[in-house]
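INFO  loader      accepted 1 record
INFO  loader      residues=280
INFO  predictor   begin
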Amino acid sequence: MATGIDAHQHFWRIARGDYGWMNESVAPLLRDFGPDDLAPHLARAGIHRTILVQAAPTEAETAFMLEIAAANELVAGVVGWLDMDSDAFPERLDAVRQNPRLVGIRPMLQDLDDDRWILRPRVLANLERLATSGLAFDILCLPRHLPHVTEALGRVPSLCAVLDHIAKPEIAAGRLDPWRADIAELARLPNVSCKVSGLVTEAAPDWRLEHFRPYVDHVTECFGEDRLIFGSDWPVATLAASYAEVANLARTLLSARFGPEALAKIFGGNAARFYRLSDI
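INFO  predictor   done
INFO  writer      dumping tokens
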């Protein structure tokens, strides 16, 4: 049986104190979340392994996640954080990539003051280094960042990159443009994939399945069955839906477009290939 993979989830320990985005606006998340919390949800959804993604912009966060991965087989890989606008990046990358559980790096573009940060010369040079290392690049951005992301990734065609949360379009407002055109432009780059993740937290509290269909249909048309990857964004998603609701939402929408073989790719095979998971 094919291995199901949730390619985007988080764990955290609040006492670590480097989660700058956490405040009372996300009060239900202000507690520790670990593997024992997630495991029952994975079992019920038929998902066997996960990709653990950074939630704090620190190297301590990367070390924390790698420790979890070493002790828990359900974590197939870790997407960590390094300062990509630092002269020390090559040295830090060489050090951390020795850990076989590290599969990618993610800067938190959405939280940076400079929307064009990804186009800084030092960042572009370090993206080249990341590509050479064989590690992947996760893109956490908002719709306004997409033109800059597309320009940057066009300059580094050997970099395997994946767009998180379909770039967080304004689902609650039902706004498709200019997100729609910018997604199509990004998808023209063959080295870029797209995570079907993080949808429910961009929707209105009374969301219904049909609210998401235009967005999922568009990334389906743009990226196709070989470049779409399922992720739950658990536990952030619990602000708006249960794990089962998130998984069922994605399966229902994608099943309208794809058959069983393609769905097996989106819910496992594509993540294993993209993140170069050797033990799947």
